[in-house]
Amino acid sequence: MKMVPMLLTVSFCQAQNKSMSLETAAGLKLQATTAAPSVLKGMKGLKLTPSSGGPLAIVEGVEFSSGTIEVDVAGEPGAGAAAGARGFVGIAFRVQPDHSTYDCFYLRPTNGRADDQERRNHSAQYISHPLHTWFKLRQETPSKYESYVDIQPAEWIHVKIEVDGVKARLYVNGAAQPTLIVNDVKSGAAAKGGVALWLEGSTVAHFANLKITPR
């Protein structure tokens, strides 16, 4: 199944911390996706549903290079999704003006408790588009950019991403140790760009409580 990622690009004033509850789409420019306030498992957030390929919802502001990004996410396959749909949901960073060049950590929530160990091992993923897709990384360096994490679809998952030059770490649900470590972020040590809420074309996603702390 070909993945068509969705991006909700968020960028803010240089070197400023920023927090957004994401309870509404106010201040977001939506493209090829729809957004609506929602309540999932008692938490208010923003539900994103893809409407076509290449969607974006952009907030004008500053670029992110290194620092911390935290957000609550939930993902599940949409109605009529193919068997390979996994509820792909995550965060892209260092997003370039073409909106197709970025680094990204994302989750496959339906893999977390699958009755197949190999599938479980593909629960969390790092990619760097357009050159370093999940398929290319899995073929060339199996298991290096993927790992297992205990997650489920349609459940809130707290994600924290720490970026320091060419090093990045993904933490899930408040764990003291990272779920996934990347020591060679493909965009390079000095790269900078926007931050984006990310989902794939077969996914219905929820986002809440975004916090960006650049440094």
How would you summarize the topology of this molecule?
Blueprint: E1 5-10, E2 18-20, E3 29-31, E4 33-40, E5 43-50, E6 56-58, E7 67-77, E8 89-95, E9 102-107, H1 117-120, E10 124-129, H2 134-140, E11 146-147, E12 157-164, E13 167-172, E14 180-182, E15 194-200, E16 203-214
Antiparallel strand pairs: 1-15, 2-16, 3-6, 4-5, 5-16, 7-12, 7-16, 8-9, 8-15, 9-10, 10-11, 12-13, 13-14
Which geometry do the CA atoms define? globular
CATH class: Mainly Beta
The CATH superfamily name is Exo-inulinase, domain 1
Largest sheet descriptor? 8 strands, antiparallel
Number of strands: 16
Q: Whole-number radius of gyration?
A: 16 Å
Using the 3D structure, state the CATH architecture: Sandwich
Sheet/helix structural class? mainly beta
Helix content: under 10%
How many domains in all?
Answer: 1
Tally of helical segments: 2
Terminal residue distance:
38 Å
Instruction: Estimate what percentage of residues fall within beta strands.
Output: over 45%
Order of helices and strands: EEEEEEEEEHEHEEEEEE
Description:
With 215 residues, the chain is mainly beta. The protein has a single domain (5-214), classed as Exo-inulinase, domain 1 (Jelly Rolls). Helices cover 5% and strands 46% of the residues. The protein has 2 helices and 16 strands. Strands 2, 4, 5, 7, 12, 13, 14 and 16 form an 8-stranded antiparallel beta sheet that branches. A hairpin with a 6-residue loop joins strand 8 (89-95) and strand 9. The radius of gyration is 16 Å and the shape is globular. The mean pLDDT is 89.
